[in-house]
Amino acid sequence: MSADVASTVPNPSTLQNPNHDTLKVADQSHQMHGFSHPSMQKSPVIFQSGDGGILKDVDGTEYIDLLGGITVSNLGHGREDIARIAYDQIRTLEIGNAYPGYFDGARVYLTAGGAEGVEAGELSEWHYGSSTRGYWKKKLIGFRSCYHGSTFVPFSLMTEFYDYGWDRLTEGWSTEMKQHKDLHFFSSNDPPNEMFFNKDKIKQGENVGQAAARLLEEHILDEGPDSVAAFIFEPVQGDGGAVPHHPDFFPLARQICDKHKVLMIADEIMAFAKTGTWFGMQQYNVAPDIMIISKALTSGYLPMGAVIYTDRHDYTWSGHPTCAAVALKVLEIIVRDDMISKAAERGRTYLSILQKKLHGLRLVKDIRGRGLMLGIDLISDIGSDVGMRLLLEKKVVLKSSSNQHCLLMTPPAVLTDEQFEKAADGIKDVLSSWQARGENLVSKSRQS
């Protein structure tokens, strides 16, 4: 190891009993965070432990977790019953071999996370398209402002991240090649909800759901039904701010996809076990062809996802024994403790608390929820700044949507009413003070 490289590696002995300053230096020197804020450069918050719905940093300060570790920990932090299962499995078998096997019919393919599941689902639809309509049936249609992960296929679908997906791969291509219909593999439509759908596209007599369904079929016909293999979507837009879709859309979309032999892929990565039903699509009584689940599958105790579909795939960490054991334990707890019903019940309670606490605030445009997926829509794009003030001043953890207009919450179902009330008071205080000072009330990108 060269001296330059060695100098960047932290000495393990200094991290055995770390204090805040030691961890702060190590974090700033080595750790690249997926989500961050300029405030963290000066004084990063480093969590050390958790219990239920409470997180504790290295200085012993407690925080109310309204995010569940980025929408993951629906059963709460610090559960010894889940940790024991992981320990026992590691002692028994730490890694499994994926011996060849084939089974007809529907099956579940285990992955190391949600984004990997999206990639596997995309490969599945390519195989489906090639086997049913020929080589060119590979196009994938999605929704704008939907988040499907941080890998190639999701980035290619999201307008905010085009530069990291298909556009980056085709950099240097001629304009003619880029615009060639046969090479237009990834595209998006407006999602069927009041928040993100362009109202000018609604015809007389249509609602948002019907208009979105019509545009989906027009999109498929424009691309060519023989070239469109699948349509991917979130049942509830998570990163967009816990936004449910119009109930008329999915029954119509199911008919359209069947008509044109297009697979429906439901990204349930965030919605699984959080909306008051096992799957978000149960809210609409429509069955997709492929479902991708993650996050709540292991409640964050180990990384794992699953693709429910008909096809074959393989990755090194597929079906990791310890992750699988933890997932089985988590599912057992969800069933035993009736966590699906509790998600619906707790969600209604939390939503009511937010509506009462934030009533009358001009900065708040809408408050909504579907189970444990909750969103506070703001009239200004200050979500990240508000979230950071809540973290540093009120010790409340939540997340801003990508467009900065919404505060997203997916709290653990074990959070108490008192804890949520306290967090809601913190949200009210920060928004009230922001409103009183008149800071950034005019949006940079969206007028109220």
What are the salient characteristics of this protein?
448 residues, alpha/beta, Aspartate Aminotransferase, domain 1, Aspartate Aminotransferase, domain 2, 7-stranded mixed β-sheet, 4-stranded mixed β-sheet, 15 helices, 17 strands, 16% strand, globular, transaminase activity, Ornithine aminotransferase, aminotransferase, PyrdxlP-dep_Trfase_small
Give the secondary structure arrangement, pairings included.
Blueprint: H1 3-7, H2 20-30, H3 39-42, E1 47-51, E2 54-57, E3 62-65, H4 68-71, H5 80-92, E4 107-111, H6 114-133, E5 139-143, H7 152-157, H8 166-169, H9 175-178, E6 186-189, H10 208-223, E7 228-233, E8 236-237, E9 243-244, H11 249-259, E10 263-267, E11 290-293, E12 305-309, H12 321-336, H13 339-358, E13 364-370, E14 373-378, H14 383-394, E15 396-397, E16 399-400, E17 406-409, H15 417-437
Parallel strand pairs: 3-15, 5-6, 5-7, 7-10, 10-11
Antiparallel strand pairs: 1-2, 2-3, 4-12, 8-9, 11-12, 13-14, 14-17, 16-17
Please, could you describe this protein's structure?
With 448 residues, the protein is an alpha/beta fold. It has three domains: 1-29, no CATH class; 33-65 and 339-437, Aspartate Aminotransferase, domain 1 (Alpha-Beta Complex); 114-293, Aspartate Aminotransferase, domain 2. Helices cover 37% and strands 16% of the residues. It is built from 15 helices and 17 strands. It has helices at residues 3-7, 20-30, 39-42, 68-71, 80-92, 114-133, 152-157, 166-169, 175-178, 208-223, 249-259, 321-336, 339-358, 383-394, 417-437; strands at 47-51, 54-57, 62-65, 107-111, 139-143, 186-189, 228-233, 236-237, 243-244, 263-267, 290-293, 305-309, 364-370, 373-378, 396-397, 399-400, 406-409. Strands 4-12-11-10-7-5-6 form a seven-stranded mixed β-sheet, sandwiched between helices. Helix 13 runs parallel beside helix 15 (417-437). The longest helix has 21 residues, at 417-437. The termini are far apart. Belongs to the class-III pyridoxal-phosphate-dependent aminotransferase family.
